[in-house]
Amino acid sequence: MDDSTIICKCEEINVAEIEQAIQSGAHTFDDIKRLTRCGMGPCQAKVCSNLVRQVLRESLHKPMGEISLPRMRMPLKPTRIAALAGQEDSSSVISLFDETAPKAGDEES
Amino acid sequence: MTNKYDVVVIGSGVVGSSIAYHLSEKKDKEILVLDQSYPLSGTSGSTQAWVWVHNKTPAWYGELSMLSAELYPFLERKIGDVEYKRTGGIAPFFNEADRESARRLAEKQAEVGIDIDVLTREQVLEKEPALSANIAGATFSKIDGNVNPFRLVELYIKAAKKNHVQFSFYNPVMDIKRNNGMFEITTEKDVFIAKQIVLATGPWTREVGKLLGVDIPVKQVRGQILVTEPLAPLIKYTIAGMRQADNGEILIGYSKEEVGYDRRTTLDVIQDTAKMAVDYIPALAKANIVRCFAGVRVIPNDGYPIVGPIPTIDNAYIAVMHSGITLSPLVGTLMTELLTDGETSIDLKNLQLDRFNEFKSFV
């Protein structure tokens, strides 16, 4: 791999960009992900995961076993919102309007 | 790296890095920022990053948010493109009965200069045609917007480094002692001495406060967010509950759960958030969710920011708040004034730590 080799095809991130993130202190795949978006695309790091770990191993001089995997995110495979939408209301999902609008009788502050 | 600093800031999230950057503009203090992990691994990297003003009540809190939002365009000229967009913000309501409280909100916020329009269904749909025809109306303000939190924190840190601020990452603070009026901060990697110390530790503030001998009344609240695949431009405004990023992804979510530091996503909240998405924007039913993430946010026990000196400890300061993204430019500016001159251009009396009855100090 040379500097311009694309590692993350979803977000078009190359080797040089990964190395630059490591130089600014990134130690893990997730650090690199947040700086470069590498691994945030539709494939969810399925393609780039081990390639990035390889660059980390070489830059940090650590064995592969010590380079952690990226955090896996639900739903693992792109899923339609219609398929996810539940029927019942949750108590933890709230409306910002309901939460913040002053109601009749609210004290003046 | 020397071990003596004028100021040590603990926490390099959006609040800590903003304070370090603004303070470094004066170029008269040696500054160190410590972080237990790497920037954006905590709260600042797990947010929709609205720069949200218009529903912040009471009005003094709305005013504070507005002043901070006003600083964003200048901040961007100084530190670079943080993808700040003043889109305007829409908070829809679904019952006609809510129009009255919407009007009351508009009246109260007008007193501090926040312009809010209370829109009819037709007016909202004209602005944002993708919204559901089931809404009854919305409050709208031009001042709301959003920003890319990754770019924001990264550029705060880059600009601070350019001004010679030192950063030490992956270096948790283990102990803080006071020694001849100085702070002795023991971290995993080293010991640092500081004249002034700033806690910008977000959800971890209780733990770090205890090292200083103070009990700071904050709680952790988890929020779960859905991210769609990149979509063609669908929503133009920042909507209370979702926003579309520059790359086309839509971020959706407005949930609150008190589950400590647990950052997992859960299927029930994901499903309910998906339902909220379709209730607001019916066209989203066909969009794919690529991933979900959760963030642990900090909320001071009464909901408002804690910014200012720690009353019982000389030269110790605190900046902890829920809306760190919205408030960071202002908080960085005010803390700089406070640490440099001992007074601020805006009165911090509403934000003082000693407003809490439950605030305890053991020193």
Structural description of this entry:
- The complex is a heterodimer of chains A (109) and B (363).
- Chain A is built from five helices and three strands, in the order ββαααβαα.
- Chain A is mainly alpha-helical.
- Chain A has a two-stranded antiparallel ribbon.
- In chain A, helix 1 crosses helix 3.
- Chain A is elongated.
- The model of chain A has no long low-confidence stretch (mean pLDDT 89).
- Chain B has 363 residues and is an alpha/beta fold.
- Chain B is 29% helix and 27% strand.
- In chain B, strand 15 and strand 16 form a beta hairpin.
- The relative contact order of chain B is 0.19.
- At the A-B interface, helix 2, strand 3, helix 4 and helix 5 of A face strand 4, helix 3, helix 7 and strand 17 of B.
N-to-C order of helices and strands of chain B = EHEEHEHEHEEHEEEEHEEEEEHEEEHE
- Helices and strands of chain A, in N-to-C order? EEHHHEHH
Strand element count of chain B: 20
- Number of E-type strands of chain A: 3
Average predicted local confidence, pLDDT of chain B: 96
What characteristics describe this protein?
heterodimer; A: 109 residues; mainly alpha; two-stranded antiparallel ribbon; 3 strands; 35% helix; B: 363 residues; alpha/beta; 8 helices
List the SSEs and their pairings.
The complex is a heterodimer of chains A (109) and B (363).
Chain A: E1 6-8, E2 13-14, H1 15-23, H2 29-36, H3 49-60, E3 79-80, H4 81-84, H5 96-100
Antiparallel strand pairs in A: 1-2
Chain B: E1 4-10, H1 14-24, E2 31-34, E3 50-51, H2 59-79, E4 89-93, H3 99-110, E5 117-120, H4 121-127, E6 137-141, E7 145-146, H5 149-162, E8 166-168, E9 173-179, E10 182-187, E11 191-199, H6 205-212, E12 214-215, E13 218-228, E14 238-239, E15 242-244, E16 250-252, H7 267-280, E17 288-300, E18 306-309, E19 316-320, H8 324-341, E20 360-361
Parallel strand pairs in B: 1-2, 1-11, 2-8, 4-14, 11-19
Antiparallel strand pairs in B: 3-7, 4-6, 5-6, 9-10, 10-11, 12-20, 13-16, 13-17, 15-16, 18-19
Helix pairs in contact in B: 1-5, 1-8, 2-8
